[in-house]
Design brief:
With about 110 residues, the protein is of the alpha+beta class. Helices cover about 15% and strands about 30% of the residues. The protein is built from one helix and ten strands. The strands form three sheets. A five-stranded mixed sheet has the order 2-5-6-7-10, with helices on one face. Strands 1-4-3 form a three-stranded mixed sheet, with no helix packed on it. The protein has a two-stranded antiparallel ribbon with strand order 8-9. Strand 5, helix 1 and strand 6 form a beta-alpha-beta unit. The longest helix is centred in the middle third of the chain and has 15 residues.
Length: about 110
């Protein structure tokens, strides 16, 4: 698929992430150039005009929807932040994530 791709997830307003990874076994959630369900990974390229949207608002929304993994790419520093998106007591847990400047591996994705 190519951008833009609309993503609809439970508990979250429709979104258009920069990168969405849908695993083969979840391909049934793709219909008519839209993803209707929770993908395995969402990646956002950090917006220089409004970075807080990616770091807090989108992160919280994706956590509520149950996205297992969320990464933020910061082009200026060539860094990738792998952020936890767990829910505790009905709210996203806002712990710091790990950062890699060359590459990063995921525990959930091969």
């Amino acid at each position: 698929m190519w951008a833009p791709v609309g993503v609809r997830m439970p508990g979250c307003d429709p979104a258009q992430p920069d990168i969405v990874v849908v695993r083969h076994e979840d391909s049934h959630i793709i219909h008519d150039r839209r993803i209707n369900g929770v993908s395995a990974l969402i990646v956002e390229v950090l917006s220089s005009s409004n970075p807080e949207t990616d770091k807090t608002i989108k992160r919280a929304a994706y956590a509520r929807a149950g996205v297992p993994e969320y990464w933020i790419v910061r082009p200026a520093s060539r860094a990738v932040y792998q952020l936890p998106v767990t829910i505790r007591h009905g709210h996203p847990e806002q712990r710091e994530g790990s950062c890699a400047t060359r590459s990063d591996s995921s525990l959930r994705l091969p």
